[in-house]
Design brief:
342 residues; alpha/beta; TIM Barrel; 15 helices; 10 strands; 45% helix; binds coproporphyrinogen III
């Protein structure tokens, strides 16, 4: 493979600027994506390898990012555990949620063949992408995925019927997390064999519960996943949104890179995670709803950090929002690529 800035930085090489990519870069912020959405549903695009490959690569030309992320969703894992899922306009919703079944472990049925379309999409992306653009594969974090499986859908980012289980039935939670992690490992193995070149674990709801409880119930799964990924020489990025002070338990022994949310200043995050791990983040996507001057002002914080700290990948604190003007995303990308980072 030709030189890739993104992979070089992940490998600890000092580069002249940070690599840049965005969570949710292949989505509704792109006019080209919205045009496809007139013809196909999200599920159709995700499940057709040719379409999924096409959508994955849209932001490379449309925005100018340095890496592609697989166009899929974290909720394919519960689907592969036998749960029926609908993507409605309001967001994904399971037909039957685990909170409503008597015996969740019996209710779940392994159907790994439901992941085959993802492996086919990855092979298609590898065939069609430019060589120097690396492909990031991903999987949902155990807590975030369980939130949806138990509650069935997100109630404004809340999962009120699920969280009490974490206090009242840890044995059940441990068994389900282990079952899910087995499927994730199978899934990641398939992604690696199909050709992904880096891996990100999206733990969007890490901030939902006390840090100690997160470490007790979910970190063993996170560690197992990253151990598997790194043993296969693939770099692993962890995104634990809202983990806060819990970052003090994350270092290069767990993963290669840590994606920081917008709440935590990058300089503070660096103190918590130590000097060796790569930091990714943490531009607030809502700043992209401002004008160019507002965007440039917010960008200064990242620029200052990146001038002093070369173990840095530019990204957002969370995903792009659908109502952001793509011109602002292009402007931000240009700022990253054309600023003097020395
Ligand atoms: O980042 C990327 O561009 C890659 C593709 C990707 C999607 N979902 C596509 C998608 C990734 C990495 C995800 C991860 C994901 N999915 C997470 C974790 C990260 C995060 O954003 O918090 C979660 C919690 C989900 C579950 C999910 N999928 C929700 C809550 C929704 C609806 C809300 C929303 O953001 O649209 C989805 C649908 C979804 N997943 C869309 C896309 C492009 C929108 C589909 C559409 O166009 O209608």
């Amino acid at each position: 493979m030709k030189n890739s800035l993104f992979l070089d930085i992940l490998s600890g090489k000092e580069c002249s600027r940070p690599a840049v990519w965005y969570m949710r870069q292949a989505g509704r912020v792109l006019p080209s994506y919205n045009a496809l959405k007139e013809k196909y549903t999200f599920k159709q695009m995700m499940e057709d390898p040719k379409l999924a490959a096409k959508v994955t690569l849209l932001p490379i030309n449309d925005i100018g990012v340095d890496a592609a992320i697989l166009f899929s969703d974290i909720l394919v894992i519960p689907e592969a555990l036998g749960m029926d899922l609908d993507f409605e306009n309001k967001g994904p919703r399971f037909k039957t949620a685990l909170k409503d079944v008597a015996n969740p472990m019996q209710f779940l049925k392994d159907q790994p063949e439901k992941l085959d379309h993802v492996f086919a999409a990855i092979q298609e992306i590898i065939k069609t992408k430019e060589e120097h653009i690396p492909l990031i594969g991903f999987c949902g974090g155990p807590l975030t995925t369980l939130c949806y499986m138990f509650q069935g859908f997100s109630q404004n980012q809340n999962f009120p019927d699920f969280v009490p289980y974490l206090f009242k039935d840890k044995k059940l939670i441990n068994s389900i997390v282990e079952r899910m992690t087995d499927m994730c490992i199978y899934y990641i193995d398939g992604q690696i064999k199909a050709g992904i070149q880096a891996f990100q674990l999206f733990e969007t709801h890490a901030g939902l519960i006390p840090v100690d409880l997160y470490n007790e119930l979910f970190m063993p799964s996170v560690k197992r996943i990253f151990k598997f990924v790194r043993e296969r020489s693939i770099k692993g990025i962890f995104l634990p949104k809202g983990l806060g002070i819990g970052l003090n338990k994350i270092n290069q022994d767990v993963c290669d890179a840590i994606s920081i949310d917008w709440q935590t200043p990058l300089t503070e995050a660096r103190k918590l995670v130590g000097n060796d791990i790569i930091i990714q983040g943490n531009f607030d996507p809502r700043a992209l709803l401002a004008d160019k001057k507002g965007i440039e002002e917010e960008f200064q914080k990242c620029l200052e950090f990146g001038r002093n700290d070369k173990k840095y990948i530019f990204n957002l604190g969370h995903g792009l929002l659908p109502n952001i003007d793509v011109e602002n995303v292009k402007h931000l990308t240009k700022l990253v690529k054309e600023s003097d980072w020395s």
